[in-house]
């Protein structure tokens, strides 16, 4: 089973100088595909990929792979890998606002890189005696290049105070930057017991 496609997006934003100095006209292109292949009745493989080009950031490649093993009609195992990204928004890239009461100016950082996440997951589904349904999932994620909140001295282009055109005093620059790496590990377990056709007992536990 094959799926493929192309997406094209155009964005035009003009704040009339209230939030950004200049108007922006940007475009983004995405090319994607997915292949599912069933090997007999017990094993199914999935591979997918997406390539994104944007006038806002460097191109990104997002792969995905999954393998599902159906042991029998009651039990199955799966393993997945995927990578995804989130691009900085227009405020984080091009903000330009003067504080009305303090000698501070808030500026975007057009050198920001997209935030990324790489994830690995294994899972199990099982049915016991037609009345008990169990699910279990374990995952490990790596998140990188977080876009920070506004802060002083974080934009390498503005490490010190600046004097803006038309002003005779200096302002401290608050901006954004990429920082940090986080590793996440988690385990989710679910238990459902069907006491009757009308009544079900459900219990869940998560470790993060």
Describe this structure in words.
With 208 residues, the protein is mainly beta. The protein has one helix at residues 90-94, and strands at residues 2-13, 24-39, 43-54, 60-72, 75-86, 96-98, 104-107, 115-128, 132-147, 151-152, 162-163, 170-175, 178-194, 200-207. The strands form 2 sheets. It has a 9-stranded antiparallel beta sheet with strand order 1-2-3-4-5-8-9-13-14, with no helix packed on it. Strands 6, 7, 10, 11 and 12 form a 5-stranded mixed beta sheet that branches. β13 (178-194) and β14 form a beta hairpin. The longest helix has 5 residues, at 90-94. The protein is elongated. The chain starts with a strand and ends with a strand. The relative contact order is 0.13.
What are the main properties of this structure?
5-stranded mixed sheet; 208 residues
Quote the distance from N terminus to C terminus: 35 Å
- Order the strands across the largest sheet as they lie in space: 1-2-3-4-5-8-9-13-14
SS field, number of helical segments = 1
Mean pLDDT: 95
Which class do the helix and strand fractions yield? mainly beta
What would the principal axes of the Cα set say about the shape? elongated
Percent in helix: under 10%
Query: What characterizes the major β-sheet?
Result: 9 strands, antiparallel
What is the gyration radius calculated from CA atoms? 24 Å
- Kindly state the number of beta strands: 14
Runs in which pLDDT lies below 50 for 5 or more consecutive residues are none
| Pattern of helices and strands | EEEEEHEEEEEEEEE
Strand content: over 45%
């Amino acid at each position: 089973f094959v799926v493929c496609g192309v997406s094209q997006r155009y964005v035009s934003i003009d704040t009339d100088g209230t939030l950004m100095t200049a108007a922006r006209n940007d475009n983004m292109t995405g090319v994607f595909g997915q292949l599912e292949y069933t090997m007999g009745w017990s094993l199914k493989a999935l591979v997918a990929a997406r390539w994104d080009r944007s006038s806002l950031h460097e191109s990104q490649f997002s792969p995905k792979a999954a393998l599902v093993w159906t042991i029998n009609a009651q039990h199955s195992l799966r393993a997945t890998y995927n990578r995804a990204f989130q691009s900085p928004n227009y405020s984080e890239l091009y903000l330009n606002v003067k504080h009305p009461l303090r000698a501070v100016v808030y500026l975007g950082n057009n050198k920001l890189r997209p935030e990324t996440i790489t994830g690995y997951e294994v899972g199990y589904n099982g049915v016991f005696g037609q009345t008990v349904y169990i699910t279990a999932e374990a995952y490990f994620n790596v998140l990188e290049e977080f876009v920070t909140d506004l802060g002083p001295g974080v934009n390498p282009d503005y490490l010190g105070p600046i004097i803006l055109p038309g002003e005779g005093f200096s302002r401290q620059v608050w901006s954004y930057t990429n920082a940090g790496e986080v590793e996440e590990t988690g385990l989710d377990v679910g238990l459902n017991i069907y006491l009757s056709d009308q009544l079900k007992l459900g219990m869940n536990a998560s470790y993060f």
